[in-house]
Please model this.
Amino acid sequence: MHRHEWAQEHLAIIASTGSGKTWTSVILIEELLKKGATILVIDPHGEYVHIKNSISRLGPQFLDKVIIISASEVGVGDLRYKINTMKVQPEILADVAGVPRGASKIRYVIYLVHTLVRTIVKYSGAKQLGTPDSMIRVINEVLDHGASTSIDRVLRRLGVVLNEEGRAKAEKVLKELEDLIDSKTKKSLLVSARVYLRRLRRLGLYTYWSLPLDKVLRPSSVAIVNLAGLSDEVQDHVVYHILSRVFRARVNHVRNLPGSRYPFPVVVILEEAHRFAQPRTVRSTLSLGVISRIAGEGRKFGVYLVVITQRPSKVDPDVLSQCNSQVILRLVNQRDVMAVLSASEVLNEELGRLIPMLDVGEGIVVGPITPLPLVIRLRDRVLDYGGSDIDLSKAWTAQSDLGIEELRRGVEKVLSTRVGARSVVEAISLINDVSDVSLDTGVLSGRVGNTHVEVRLGENSWSCEVCGSPYEPCPHVIALTAKAIKNGLLRVD
Ligand SMILES: Nc1ncnc2c1ncn2[C@@H]1O[C@H](COP(=O)(O)OP(=O)(O)OP(=O)(O)O)[C@@H](O)[C@H]1O
Ligand SMILES: [Mg+2]
Ligand SMILES: [Zn+2]
Model:
């Protein structure tokens, strides 16, 4: 029956939420590890990190084979993912920092400051200066001295010297920056740019070097990239960054090109693929480019994709149709069933009618691994993961008579920032654990479980012991705020 091995085709694992996708993926990881594969998991919710604690059950030889890489400063991880700020296009930095698409002047400031720092790094050789912090220091210098800022002052502030050529190049960029504040736009532009650069600095992700790929990819190992607590834009950038490097390292190996190389095939497990690989017409993500490339050419270079999603109708159809093998578990939404049928050559309507009726743990397998669609029952897994089983709607109605949407709007008002319905739903599962809520001179504080959380109301800022100070409120912050609203501590009318 096994005409091909699993890992020589792209695979899609598709099911409605709570129908066993991650379970299936964990079984796949167990099998792949036993075969010696190199696995990279993109884990937006930090669900896979529990694999590490249970890995000994798979055998003592796997004890040091799970590497958790957190992309946030505070998430669970053995290593922190890092991105070299100077190698990122300033436009992307602006996106990640949350600069609105239309704010072209702020984007221009960020571009100029980035160019200036890059020039200084290039001509001085002082690599360690290539950070958001240096960019902020440049802005501070210009704000302090306005149009009389000199390049020598900037260099002194950064503690670095340049040769004549470098000095001239840097001076030219600085001049453009000064011209900007001389004109009518005034200083507020620099101040705004600084706000966004501080957000960037707070992420802790952007520095003057990138995490080496050989810390991520190892044979017979699974690297889990924990993206929990990061905004969509940051997640997108990390996924784009790491997948681009993995793909390039494989191309370099196969084509015998210079640069970073990796000598073994890599399986990339992409959870919540609809976040990263939406059709271009819906929302264009950075990562879609590299995901499409891997979907199209990855097999040639030994990069295999496992696309996991509950919304196949929201995944780029080209990406989906490249997944020749599919594991389809229970899927209730008719549009999603249609998307699956249209991406597959072997699934017919008869099987389509079966899909919504599957039980948890049952699935249909199609593709080169089986000549005919096969109905399967999944085996037990060995490893643990952190899926949550709470019935959110029930947990919520037991809690309050406020509707989710009403609550979302209330929290948005209090925090003066956009709050996604999704994070509200996540927060609701935490609301039972909120305690010690108090409001004192504009500071709302309390605990979510054992986590201390604070919201400074006047400043629109917040902090959480687990998530740090994310610039989009984390579920802990939202849970605390929601509880305060519910208890009547904050009024939102
Ligand atoms: N084959 C199985 N046998 C027994 N229980 C299962 C099986 N598959 C899944 N479950 C249970 O069903 C629940 C949901 O599974 P899982 O977390 O894998 O779903 P999911 O599709 O990844 O959900 P989400 O969309 O929330 O990520 C879990 O509690 C899990 O223990
Ligand atoms: Mg899951
Ligand atoms: Zn938090």
